[in-house]
Amino acid sequence: MKMMDTERVESKGKRKTELMDFEIDKNGVLKEYTGDHDTVEIGADIQKIGPHAFEGKGIRKITIPSNVKSIGSEAFKNCHQLEEVILHEGLEKIESCAFERCENLVQITIPQSVKLLDVGAFSYCKGLKQIVVSEGIQKIGRAAFLNCENLEEVTFPKHPVKIDALAFADCRKLNSISIPEGNKTIEPNTFIHCASLKEIEFPDCLTAIENSAFEGCRALEKINLPKDVKKIHVYAFRGCTKLKEIHFSHRLEEIGEYAFDNCQKLEEVVFPDTLKIIEVGAFCNCEGLTLISFPGDIKEVSSDLGVSITEAEDDDFGFDEGFSFSIYRDTRNTLKLKNRRIVVRGSLGEPLKKVLQKNKVMDKVCLPDIECSMAPVAAREATALYILQKQREGSEIPSNILSSYLKYMKAHNIPM
Question: What is the DSSP letter of 336?
Fold first, then answer.
């Protein structure tokens, strides 16, 4: 069925239309818009806007009434002149890429009746600045707002909303976000490369931050993780170059590979006692880092600081009463180990020699009552550093440490 009407009204010298050309099937699906007007109102007998119905058309304004239940995939894709979309209550679903690449669309309010924003629904809408997500929404699909590069503000409802991966990726002007209360996971790449993002409000029930969730959020300065977060996944905060401060949850158990890689402004990291695993490169290229303080129950650490730390083995070199110490990679990086029987493997080599020449950061050595085991080379260097510092301070060197060190050096025929 084809309905045609050419009734027109004038507005500020420009031609508009309130009724227009439609091609509608017997089920009330708008198959194609055939008119050439820049302002369009959908008729009362249309139940659905079908796939590609307006794709590439030159419309500027569309009003979609309550009788329309869904907007089909790519229905308004590449409507480059579209500036205003009015959605009424009754709409339930906006399907995949429905408004993709509508570059002149500035603002959108999602009705409360809408339950689903599907994959890429508003992706590449580069002019979009504000989104109000209604209370009825249940799911925001993958890449729904991908590369909305001028998006500044998103208002979420106060109930759980499933937000899929890449939903707000490359929204480069988004400056703050409040994750809906009830969301337990932030999916991979959800806010990757949101370069202006400075503030994140996490829900209290959050338990996991997935791969690259906030990678490349270069304006982010501070992170306060809720109490139930147990795992920070691979690359989660990689490239957050202005990040200065992290407050970990008290239930954190694992930090994934390169999770904080290239967080150049980060200075100190204090882990909770619940932490068990820190994967390879977790704090790689953190050039401003001066202190990492490990918890008592750490089981495995692989770091970029030139050492690997694992649970002690019986055949590793140890001290009678043990101690903890600080190992300095250079004048910026300190690895502080405490409250655990620890093994340090490998040689510190040249980095340690540089520290001995430029020792301005050597201001702290902790001596808790623990037992420390080290592979021979690392043990010799770490202990030598400790003894050297104590001598410079004019402090007494504990007899157990000095005797163990001398005994080891003699047993291995190492000159002192």
Answer: E
When pLDDT is averaged across residues 60-89 and rounded to a whole number, the result is 97
95 by Cβ neighbours in 10 Å (0-12 / 13-18 / 19+) ranks as buried
E strand intervals along 126-229:
130-132, 139-140, 153-155, 162-163, 176-178, 185-186, 199-201, 208-209, 222-224
180: pLDDT strictly greater than 70: yes
Q: Which two tokens stand for residue 102?
A: 């509508």
What is the CB neighbour count within 10 angstroms for residue 357? 7
Separation between Cα atoms, residue 323 and residue 399, nearest integer Å: 12
| Identity at 334, one-letter amino acid code | T
Cβ neighbours for 353, distance < 8 A, ≥ 6 positions apart: none
Q: Which of 119, 114, 126 is nearest to 152 (CA)?
A: 126
The three-state secondary structure class of 123 is coil
What are the residues facing 116 on neighbouring strands?
93, 139
Single-letter code of the amino acid located at 268: E
Task: Tell me which residue of 401, 363, 400 sits closest to 379, measured CA to CA.
Answer: 401
Residues 6+ apart with CB under 8 A from 39: 11, 16, 17, 18, 59, 60, 61
Which residue matches tokens 């989104």?
131
The single-letter code of the amino acid at 143 is A
Return the pLDDT at 350: 38
Q: What pLDDT does 321 receive?
A: 30
Closest-CA residue to 318 (of 343, 350, 293)? 343
DSSP assignment of 73-117 equals: TTTTTT-TT--EEEE-BTB-EE-TTTTTT-TT--EEE--TT--EE
Identify which of 171, 87, 96, 164 has the alpha carbon closest to the alpha carbon of residue 128: 171
Say if residue 358 is exposed, middle or buried (CB neighbours under 10 Å; 0-12, 13-18, 19+): exposed
Q: Are 191 and 211 in contact (CB under 8 A)?
A: no
Q: Which residues have C-beta within 8 Å of that of residue 370, sequence separation ≥ 6?
A: 322, 323, 324, 338, 339, 340, 341, 342
Whether the per-residue pLDDT at 212 is higher than 90: the answer is yes
Half-sphere exposure (Cβ direction) of 394: Cα atoms closer than 13 Å = 0
